[in-house]
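#struct-queue
[09:14] JT: dropping the first one here, sequence first, then the structure tokens:
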Amino acid sequence: MNVVVAKSAGFCWGVRRAVELARKTAASGATPVYTDGPLIHNEHMMRRLREAGVEECPDPAAIPAGATLIVRAHGISPERRRRLESLPIALIDATCPDVAKIQRIVRQAADGAATVLILGDPGHAEVVALLGCAGPRGRVVTSPQDVEALPSDLGNVCFVSQSTQPEATFEATAAAVTRRFPGASIVNTICHATRNRQGELDSLAEDCDAFVVVGSPASANTQRLAQLASRLKPTVVVDSADQLDPGDFAGVATVAVTAGASTPDFLIEAVTARLQTF
């Protein structure tokens, strides 16, 4: 079976930066090193980081004084940042710069008394942090239908997006915001890596019979990528190579492999190698 790997598959630059920062910190001899929750949404990568001396910490208040804590790539709210800065630890910020830019936009809009509408997955770490930046002026929407259900007296409105939302969803929801709130500020904050990854599916679909999407079930952008791929061609979603079943590829001559932004290269390479044996 012929295997084609998407050029955009795997780590985006923000995730790669966070992982390299964690590894560099551990290698420098700074011990112990912790992350404030999972640095990225991939347990295979987190396991390798643990082997390198980086541990995930569910409760920063419990880590020893003098330890180093790394802020996850998804970012944190201003309130949580103040709490962490009050602890007797060294704090290193691995927030994706694209996410940090969205946080600045949200803070400026909220400081200007605008209602901030955030297109995103409720409960996702990035969205939770953005809500924290907006304070009481923030609201999460997931679709044009959510916008239609909003009260009409929101005043000035600023509309932004979680960095990994689908472009089509953003455009449809932005149109609904403009209809409901003429004059609203619309800021497309979907990152370039997400646009490239999702946009590449169309060209790959022209030359393949099926997709394989590699990534963690905990990764929202991986699952979203899989949904988009499945609209184009039969799609198999796996967390690792050992989940591949040859029976899923009967009659498939060419398969295209893509992966979420938190999927490391070693998983993509293992999946590709196994597919080539089918």
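[09:21] JT: and here's the second one, same format:
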Amino acid sequence: MSFINMKPGTLLSPTPVVMVSCADAGVAPNIITIAWVGTINSDPPMVSISVRAARHSYDIIKNSGEFVVNLVSRELMEVTDLCGVKSGREMDKFAENGLTPVPVPALKYAPAIAQSPAYLACKVTQAIDLGSHTMFLSEIVDMGIREDLMQDSGKIDFVKADLAAYCHGEYTGLTAPEGFFGYSVARPEVLKRRLDKK
């Protein structure tokens, strides 16, 4: 099968669906949806988000130097979409969507979203202007996982979390796992134990 050459663009898909919450001194908490988010380092744990300067949250994040990446379940997809199409200049996204801001001990201003399955609290270490967006390189300084998602083994039950993904302009739920890191070389009994679980 041959390829069709196209103009370069942001084709990388799917990406996580996240709501980024932020606040600053004297500035009400806000939520921005971010498609450009990703892990960039493991020690220390770091993520990056990229934000257009015109967005309401841009100055809040730039001035406060902190934000929270809130993971999104399928249940939160419609609320997340509304947070993406409406501006925090026009509405209180927490109040309008029935979302609850909760303090994060490691941060001074930015709250997490109580309804999210999990959150990553981040402090900005560097801001890089890339053109259409500014990328905020950030260290993860705290994480919260909904209590019912923690298994006795200490693992997080991401299947139960029912996370959503964003794929080329559309939201989609995730399917049950069909593999795991190292499954291509795993012994048959390991495959059965890991993949036959319901």
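[09:30] RK: nice, looked through the second one.
[09:31] RK: The chain has five helices and twelve strands.
[09:31] JT: good to know. The longest helix spans residues 56-64.
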